[in-house]
Amino acid sequence: MDNLSSFTITQAHEKLKKKAISSVELVQSCIDRIEQVDSKINAVVHRNFEEALACAKEIDDAGIFDHPLTGIPYLAKDVFCEKGVKTTACSNVLRSKDYVAPFDSTTTTRLKAAGAISLGKTNTDEFTQGASTESSCYGVSCCPWDTARVAGGSSGGSAAAVAAHECLFALGTDTGGSIRQPAGFCGCTGMRVTYGRTSRYGVMSMASSLDTIGGLTRNVEDYALLLSAIAGNDPLDATTSDREVPDYVSALKEGIKGMKIGLPKEYFIEGIDPEVEAAIRVAADVFTSLGATVTDISLPHTQYAIATYYIIVPSEVSSNMARYDGIRYGHSEGEAKDLIDYYFQTRSAGFGDEVKRRIMLGTYALSAGYFDAYYRQAQRVRALIKHDFDEAFKNVDVILSPVSPTPAFKIGAHENDPLALYLEDIFTVSQPLAGVPALSIPCGFSKENLPIGLQLTGPQWGETTLLQAGYAYEQSTDWHQKTPEL
User: Which of 3, 19, 187, 254 gets the highest tally of CB atoms within 10 A of its CB?
Assistant: First the structure.
């Protein structure tokens, strides 16, 4: 029973249905694993173990495991509100007062309804602003494959927890790659869904026009099970679609014979790690062997994606961070001369450097005299980037690319160069600007035994196609079955 935490969702569900294991045993196995290895990777920042075991006992006593997620333990990124559980966005603005959410996010509500069991919260960059978890007030999360390297970000804690077998799946958010990049760095599966496919209600916002809700799992089948449970319209989130949620699991095994896959030349650029490019080229050959047609394509406005993203996102950050004023809730300072001084002291002490940087950039871009030159212009380029994808998907079903230009980088590598950290997002920011889904799955390892991730991008509402392609690839490879030694 020592290795129950290494089960996939599918494996655990079958065992639970047959009463070969209990939910209490499964939850306890994850708790034991967290106690054993989390000091090495710093993935879990809030623990909810007593409540998790109590919930598992109730489920065992009922003995009904009809839903694939019933009795399955998971961790949630520390931006998902769960009633009665600490939720701090890994920021001193909320940590200093131990903010406890008085309500549940729609996603955690749906998981509760399915019988999934929350173990606690995972590490993230402060308010999800970063690509390495180095901006977290709890310190950096380490890659389970090499603890001298980052786990990625902002959902680095969730990716590290899944890869290290601390839970069977974890929740994350993806604004500009915050699920896909850590999934690639840690060797697990993650997807950014179409904007509006999942509800953002009860999840702390960074950039409201780009944020999406998803998760990280061991394989594609598990992701299909998770997405089936959390996707769909939500009356509490006006940006969700009323489109019917497909049966993602049943569609997995339909195969990819005849599927057209595009290789964008703009994603194979100078500076990409040769091992990453080689792994993606080999993956393309695998898809060809499975009956797909791989062809070169162009996404000509890709070169403007980083600049566009880092004008729009700070602008929306500037707006969203305004609510943290220390008056209604969160961190507050004592003596102040007036209201402006109070805001200055509270936010100076409560926010970290990256959040302050983005607030200042965004406020500048939105200010009178600069709005048209920066924010409005960025929105125009955003439309051109979306047009590139629209045109590409007239000829191909899926676009294949790397997730990141390199495997996981060393902790502190970009400490004094925020622009270099922003450039880590070069392959993951175009999809959110276009509002399209993208899937990250492992496709190899570097000579230093670091995972390499491949990215499959689809058209709007194309999650089913992406999961089919990812599942077919997994059935022909074993990269997703590799596990780190901790």
Answer: 187
